Amino acid sequence: MSSKKGIRTTEAVVIGAGTIGCATAYHLARSGIKTILTDRNTVGSGNTSLAASLLTRIRGKEPIIPLVKETYANIEVLHDEIESRLDISDWGSLHIAASAESSSELQKLVKIAQTHHIGHDHLGQGEVKKMVPWLAVDEVQQALFIPGDAHLDAYVLTQGFAAGAKMYGAEIAQYTHVTGLIMEQDKVKGVESEQGPIYADYVVDAAGAWSNLISLKAGVALPMTPVRSNYWITAKDKELFNADQPIVILPDASAYTRPESGGLLFGLRESNSIHFDPRNLPADLTGYTFGNPGDQWNILMEQGEKLRRFFPMFDQVSIPHYISGVSTYTPDGMFVIGGVPGVKGFLAATGCSGAGVAVSGGMGRIIAEMANGQEPFCDTQPFRPDRFGMIDPFSEEFMVRCAKARSRKTSG
């Protein structure tokens, strides 16, 4: 892109080229809206490559499910549109119950699966052992298998959405740092950037962990804060792990797993999740340490104890890789989608609450429908940016509320 500054005009500007931003640009451009997608770095360079990327369709929070289904539909369409198959591992997901509480929750998931017409099977311990050799099946009280559930590389999906957006005429402006919003009374008219102003009918804030740094320029406080996420990857072991193992959800261990490069990727949720003030996060997360360097071992010692119950070989396998990043959580674990009363021309697509990759297609479609004056394809009331009333997103009290939402999460 040229560094020459000049005034540009378009119909929609999307700030942030992560998975959600690229999906939003794709849907906007596909619907006929002239779109510019900006990022201060490159497509998928933020937290995208750090995501575990589980596309589980059955969710305890039912309003999320249509958004995940839309992402699956988008992936199928993108295969044809960009003439390249996205590498998706659709070996299903296995939800394990090992207590009275989790068994009760599993029965609720069965009813949700029936309501949303999602295929599912109850498996016995022998069937579970064949699928997941490392799992201690004697601990399993109930097992629910969801065929077709998948995981994929979030960076690949992000690039796919970006390619689709470009094919429909969107401009992708990498290395374009948005420094402010252009306001005219109560309306957002565009963005200021280091490459010059871009005037637009709509500005979409999809800046992830940095979203409030954008929205507050229009006086809009979004109800979210960046919260640390953690996962580890074991060494390869062909007897225990293979590529066609399903995602495993272990609510009794506050953990999830999926195969990765011949090893096992497993995530553990901290009992007291660490939050971050977005004003203190660097523009480039490469090499950034989220918390103290020794935290990964402390979490393994504390939270890993629950996982050992289900993974007897836990202490015998080598764990060479640790990945930490941030997810933007809200107090209720739902997303932040849409506009706010009193501010025209501004739309938010953020607050991923640990499911940004899975719901990216659905979020993008909602924003495009809103920009076109259409009724969204699903209920968006649970995602309203103003649902908590007046908040200070940088107050310690509010950030702790958001962090607790991650600590309470037990699903995939």
Task: Sum up the structure in keywords.
single chain, 412 residues, alpha/beta, FAD/NAD(P)-binding domain, D-Amino Acid Oxidase, Chain A, domain 2, 8-stranded mixed β-sheet, 9 helices, 28% helix, globular
- Element order: H for helix, E for strand: EEHEEHEEHEHEEHEEEEEHEEEEHEEEHH
CATH class of the largest domain: Alpha Beta
* Low-confidence sequence ranges: none
Helix content: 25-40%
Distance between the termini: 39 Å
By secondary-structure content and strand pairing, the structural class works out as alpha/beta
Task: Describe, in plain words, how this protein is organized in 3D.
The protein is an alpha/beta fold and 412 residues long. The protein has two domains: 8-53 and 154-225 and 332-408, FAD/NAD(P)-binding domain; 90-148 and 230-325, D-Amino Acid Oxidase, Chain A, domain 2. 28% of the residues lie in helices and 24% in strands. It is built from nine helices and 21 strands. It has helices spanning 19-30, 65-81, 100-115, 125-131, 154-167, 211-215, 295-308, 356-371, 396-408; strands at residues 8-9, 12-15, 35-38, 54-55, 88-89, 93-97, 121-122, 142-146, 150-152, 171-173, 178-184, 187-193, 198-199, 202-205, 225-233, 247-250, 255-260, 263-268, 321-329, 336-340, 343-350. The protein has an eight-stranded mixed β-sheet, sandwiched between helices. The chain has a six-stranded mixed β-sheet with strand order 10-3-2-14-21-20. A four-stranded mixed β-sheet has the order 1-13-12-11, with no helix packed on it. A hairpin with a 2-residue loop joins strand 20 and strand 21 (343-350). Helix 2 packs across helix 8 (356-371). The protein is globular and about 65 Å long.
